[in-house]
Amino acid sequence: MAYIKAKPVPVTVITGYLGAGKTTLLNRILTHKHGKQVAVIVNEFGEVGIDAQLVIDTNEEILEMNNGCICCTVRGDLIRIVNSLMQRRDKFDYLVIETTGLADPAPVIQSFFVDEIMRSHTELDAVITVIDAKHIWYHWDSYEAQEQIAFADVVLINKIDLISKTQLVELEKRLRKINAFAKFYYTQNCDLNIDCVLGIEAFDLKNTLSIDPNFLDEANHEHDQSIYSVAIAEMGTVNSDKLTNWLNQLTQTQGQNLFRLKGVLNVDAEDRRFVFQGIHMLLDGRPGRPWKPGESRRNELIFIGRSLDENQLKQEFRNCLI
Ligand SMILES: Nc1nc2c(ncn2[C@@H]2O[C@H](COP(=O)(O)OP(=O)(O)OP(=O)(O)O)[C@@H](O)[C@H]2O)c(=O)[nH]1
């Protein structure tokens, strides 16, 4: 295989639990004028690729990995994608990987050291973990959430607008108990100086090995199998009033089990796509970019959580169609 430049590509891994603000941070990185040509790998949980649609339109190279969780497919897909990117090495000088909210970052980090091509052509710059200051409280027991905190070089305590100062102090204390090494920033909408997250050379394998001496040898990890996703992809025009009623009712009655919901919809045959986002009981909907001429106006929704009834969700969505 021929590689054009020998200098290793710095890589930033963005992790954080469902809905924490990873895509928000990614969009900030992509719009910031840092002079770097950034390639992006977005991994998401679920069959429909909504995240890549929510990443703003730029000239950057954006690759999706939707067929599973990055931490499980890491030795296959991630390595394959990075290897193929390396053959277009002249097109970018930085790589950002956004993992799913349910990914354990450990196997992702491992792959930079155990795979020969990854090891010689990339250099892990930092693991950035975004924390949803309001909702992390529901997920302290989650193994993945704990791993995400433990492996962070930088922690963004995000959504500080949704909690009090006292809660923030309490939260930071709790996070520091899991990770004493990381640098902490408080953010709203991941608004911070991009120099705090890109090109910081913060990752140090020695720190990781001090947390877990067997880190490079571990092959298996487990997921909480009770969390799964339901994806809906259907043509049709959605009635906005019916949709609002349904989503409000859904988040009110099932918010506890509904960790994350998002969708890109054709509402009231408007010129612009309608984008909604939800995290537990918090719901937000707004117009997105215009539909492109000739673009298929497919409604795509994803629900992630526990005890979700796929048939019921699909039926209730269909009831919102005109
Ligand atoms: N109130 C508030 N909302 C925020 C903040 N940051 C992000 N959000 C909103 O939180 C929602 C989720 O943000 P994303 O950036 O999509 O989160 P994510 O971590 O990429 O989500 P997944 O990839 O689905 O796990 C969106 O509606 C954001 O607009 C913040 O600081 N405060």
At a glance:
The chain is of the alpha/beta class. It is built from ten helices and twelve strands. It catalyses: GTP + H2O = GDP + phosphate + H(+).
CATH superfamily of the largest domain: P-loop containing nucleotide triphosphate hydrolases
Strand segment count: 12
The topology string of helices and strands comes to EHEHEHEHHEHEHEHEHEEEEH
How would you sum up the global shape?
Answer: globular
Percent helix: 25-40%
In CATH, the architecture of the largest domain is: 3-Layer(aba) Sandwich
Q: Can you list the strand order of the major beta sheet?
A: 3-2-4-1-5-6-7
Using only C-alpha atoms, the radius of gyration works out to 20 Å
How many separate domains make up the residues? Answer: 2
**Any low-confidence stretches, pLDDT <50, length ≥5?**
1-5
**Helix/strand-derived class?**
alpha/beta
Q: How does this model look, in words?
A:
The chain has 322 residues and is of the alpha/beta class. It has ten helices and twelve strands. The protein has two domains: 203 residues, P-loop containing nucleotide triphosphate hydrolases (Rossmann fold, 3-Layer(aba) Sandwich); 91 residues, CobW-like, C-terminal domain (Hypothetical Protein Yjia, Chain: A,domain 2, 2-Layer Sandwich). β2, α2 and β3 form a beta-alpha-beta unit. α3 packs parallel to α4. The longest helix is centred in the N-terminal third of the chain and has 17 residues. Bound molecules: guanosine-5'-triphosphate. The site of guanosine-5'-triphosphate has 20 residues, from α1.
